[in-house]
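Co-fold these.
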Amino acid sequence: MSESDEPAAEAQIGAVIADKLEDDDGLHPRGSLFSIGDLAREFDVTLRTLRFYEDKGLINPRREGLNRLYSRRDRARLKLVLMGKRVGFSLTEIKGMLDLYDLRDGQVAQLKVALDRFNDRIAILEKQKKEIEQALMELRRTTAVVSGLLKEKEAGARRS
Amino acid sequence: MSESDEPAAEAQIGAVIADKLEDDDGLHPRGSLFSIGDLAREFDVTLRTLRFYEDKGLINPRREGLNRLYSRRDRARLKLVLMGKRVGFSLTEIKGMLDLYDLRDGQVAQLKVALDRFNDRIAILEKQKKEIEQALMELRRTTAVVSGLLKEKEAGARRS
DNA sequence: CCCGACCTTGACGTAAAGGGAAGCATGTGC
DNA sequence: GCACATGCTTCCCTTTACGTCAAGGTCGGG
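Predicted complex below.
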């Protein structure tokens, strides 16, 4: 409850990107490690989901014995995954982008790729929006016709 | 064939409903029968799809030997199915409504039920539309942030 | 006689994202 | 010494709407 949106508008995403760019690779101090339950609660997903994401290669927490231990970086990746989902990317697509990121060579190139994907997504979403608007129109016309029919019928019934 | 409503605009749907209301039950003359291929071409669906719909109880063409023979009524049902799909109903929901129709007792009641479903669908579609708009906003903000980052990086690269 | 169109019934496969349950370990508090 | 919480793995199940063979029947033509 203590975070997420106090700076202005694009802060949430900014934070995501920022988190993602934090280079806390392997060798950071011990602070800020999370259990699977921690993350599950924080992001309101099930343990099953977190394990599933791991299985799909989206996150790789290390182990403390058997138990998973998530770093801030894992957490940031999870954030990206969830935001990707919100905007309609499939887990596979998300993995693709995360993997690109991890190649970590010409980051500029990777960012450009991501940017392209984002723009593609925007186009898709706009198309979907239009389809929904279409469907809404068709549906509204239909309800109009049907309630017309209905009134006729009821009127007819009254006349008989 | 006495079509009572031809007001221009909602004519397509009007036609659907009209077709559906045509009482060509079992005993109509022989004209206007269709093969599976006919309907497939006309509505641009695969044969597999038509068989699948039959399997699901959405259409029941009769048989001429083994081959399927579709009546105008089957065709009208198919039309309704496809329009239902366009506006986002699942095949199961569509079947539900078609079955109601076939109960053919108090048609008025059935029409009211359908009308309710339509309104529910409208609500759902509106919600989806909002979600898409949300996603679009999030995505646009993100692209903005990313392209900002990108410019910084490129500028940095030029300075170095 | 053979070809190509058109049709038939199975049966299995696919994608996406997990859900659910079995069966077992571990740690903690009382 | 036991319950409870938390976690682990493994495996199968679910939903939706078909696609994709496989393996063949039937009919009109050439």
